[in-house]
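I hope you will forgive my troubling you with a question about protein structure. Could you please explain, in whatever detail you think fit, how the structure tokens follow from the sequence? Thank you for your consideration; the sequence and its tokens are set out here.
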Amino acid sequence: MKNIVLIFCCLLSLSCSKYLDVKPDKKLVVPTSVQDIEALLNNTRIFNIAYPGMGEVASGDFYLLPQDWKALSSPSVRNSYIWGEDIFNENDRNEWSVSYIKVYNCNVILDAIDEGRIKNGKGDEIKHFKGAALFFRAFTFYNLLQLFANAWDGQAVSNDLGIPLRLNSDLNIPTTRASLAESYRRVVEDAKLALELVPENVKIKTLPNKTVVNAFLARVFLNIGNYKDALFYAEQAIANNNQLLDFNDLDVSRRFPFSRFNSEVLFYSLINTHSNLYPPTIKVDSLLFNSYHENDLRKSLYYQKNVDGSHSFRGSFDESEIFFTGFTVGELYLIGAEANARLGQELIAAEYLNTLLKNRFLMGTFTKYNFSSSQEALDAVLQERRKELVFRGIRWSDLKRLNKEGKYTTTLRRFIDGVVYELPPNDFRYNFLIPKDVIAQTGIPQNTR
């Protein structure tokens, strides 16, 4: 029973649910109808919010004043900010355990379907539910890999540690860490199977359709350097939905200019935004803010000026102060641009980037890119990627993968009361430590320090 600690928080937090009265014996957790499964998948508290956010804390796009850092109530947030070690240990509900709550619920659904317990499904209902559960499991595994495993390296993926791949709702199955290669293989396999099963369209953007799964696969393949497949899946998604917002049509005077579920949003999910990390406490890095052209509407729509002259982010696609980490059409155009640049197609990369940016600049002021080399294209795409996808939970992954390339390495620094904290490229601290109680009770290897 020692391995139950992996999702111990799940047992506590879900006990009030009719369908999730979780016990150590999986036989007591039995959805028996499509209504049961639909209720699970429509629980946005489980499947659409609280995706890992500590990477956003650590990625360097914002800074805190010393007094605000000291006032942080969470040791995990305080230490993530300076890349310290004591993280995820003060609370059973943390970015490891909450993620495995999602995985557990996916497995409950998949087990019920695969074991033939759902008797009243009509048409493609059960097929669509299975596809959604596979997508959510793959998406959760992928997010865990960004925090707790190395960036993809073709020479080391078989030896590098990945994450525990819980593929069954039986809590008594021992917990082990798969390799990085096995972990990403599972993410891709789950996502590709989901792509075959999910519907073309969904009524609400909290559930996946084929466009969403294509967008997810494009994000995954870009992250692991498979640019040919990243481009393929980005093109598939764009072919189904190319609705970019024209930022000229947005009201800059609104507190939150971007409406929830706007036309550019493909799939809705949120980052776990931690206490005290709201405007005006978090202040955007001045170099990042100043990198936007004056005619770039993102400068006024994404940010607000604080009374001290600094700036805070307000551009969440959640129409709130909570960071959005779902999929958008804008991200797809950037994946298409980067993949083409990496594949030596600078002219096509420019087409993708120009299509995006003409919708981001003040009407009539954008000057199109014309690249003379794929390297020039890649440099521009990566700059625009950071500016477009800021506070989307993506920067930490980008830092990790780009640190593998000498030209794009980044050293992060924090300054607090005369002390300089530094995170060099490819440092061990790019992998967060797994909670101590998980290590103690499962015996899985801890990340290196």
In short: The CA atoms of residues 36 and 240 lie 31 Å apart. The longest helix spans residues 125-148.
